[in-house]
Structures are given as C-alpha cells and as structure tokens.
Amino acid sequence: MTVLCLVLAWSLPAQAATKMDAKLEQQVLQILRDHPEVIIESVQNFDQQKKAQLRQVQQAFLQDLKTNPQAVIGDSPRTGPVDSQNVLVEFSDFQCPYCAEVHKTLKSLVEKHKDNLTLVYKNLPLTAAHPEALPAAQAAWAAQQQGKFWEYHDALFANQKQLGEALYVDIAKKLNLDLEKFASDRQLANTAIGQDVQLANKLGVIGTPFLVINTKDYAGSVQASEIEQRLDNAS
Known about the structure:
Blueprint: H1 2-11, H2 14-19, H3 22-34, H4 37-67, H5 69-73, E1 78-79, E2 87-92, H6 97-112, E3 118-123, H7 133-144, H8 149-158, H9 165-174, H10 179-186, H11 190-203, E4 210-214, E5 219-221, H12 224-234
Parallel strand pairs: 2-3
Antiparallel strand pairs: 1-3, 2-4, 4-5
C-alpha cells in the first residue's frame, strides 16, 4: 500500500492529488493492484536512466583525467611530476582503517615511481561512521595552506587511533606550522572538502578508499594491488 500511494504521489500533480476524492483514489489503486507490472516497469526504467546518467558522468571524468588532468586535480594535494602521464586519484577518509592500509601501499608506490606517477588526494569523509573524519580532513587542509599536507597526511594515518583535537594540534606543532593560521584555516576548509565530496557523489563513489588511475592503456577504477601492474604496463 505504501508503494502504491507513493506511485500516486509521483504520477499526479500535487494539487490534483489533494482534490482527488476517495472513490477515484480507490479506483486508481485498484488499477495498480491489477497491473503491478506498471510499477515494476516504471522503477526499472527510472533505474536504467539513472545508471545511464552515471555512466556518462564517469566517462566524462575519465576523459578529463586523460586529456586535461589539471581540471580533475584542481587545488587538491598532489605529489609526483606535474606533467606525468600516469595519474592516480584517491578518494580517502582519514578515519577509515582500510584507507590507512592502502596508504602504506601508495606511499611505497609513490616512492618507487616518483618520476612517472602523480598521486592526487581527494577527501571523502564518511561522517556517519567516522566522527573524526571531517575534523581530520579540515586539519590536513589547513596544513596544506602552509605547504605541509603530505607530512600532516602521513602523521594522521600513522596515528589514526588517536584522532582528535589534541593530535591535530600536536602534529601542527611538530611540523612547525603557524598555529594561529592553522586554527583559522581549519574553519575555512569545508568549501574545498565539500567540492571533493560533491565530485565523489556525482561519480557514484560510496566507500573509501576509492582509486581511479589513468595510464597509457587504461583509465578507470583500480584496486591498490593492481596499480603496480598498470604502471609496469604503461612503462
């Protein structure tokens, strides 16, 4: 009954629905009961349309990553050659334990392929599950404003179990950041973080870590364990 009522709400203008008398409503409901395939077909068509739209957005993103990577990178932190043909985009959450594990792999890969791999960091704090994900991302963005993103990034993952205000300030002190600027910049971080989250949502990214790579012969999502082979193939 709930689904049928919902279909009615979608199918009829709000004003008409409010004026519909009980008899007509029952007639419509009976038609839908007699022909449930109408509901199923409508839901399937809607789902197919959404999937097609998502594929278009994803393909446009991959095309930009291939032909105009700077448009994808934007102001996001990156490490590696500016003009590298191999670009790896990481959507990550500082409180995600899987991201912490992948971080170890990526750090090793970046060091090994420092001359032919650009790593780009995008924020995707999963705030519903990780209450410190957003504050940590804000602190890392503030460190980026003083040229210390990657050092701060590494320290957050190395101390993931201690995420919290005391750690954020302690890392800032150890990196000799201007603490007053660090504090004020943290309050300004949400715009940049929100842009990353918006991009992730457009691409249909729902979990972290999520990795997308562009190489000579491949562009698309990739598992951390596959990156080495992709880079070897590109070489």
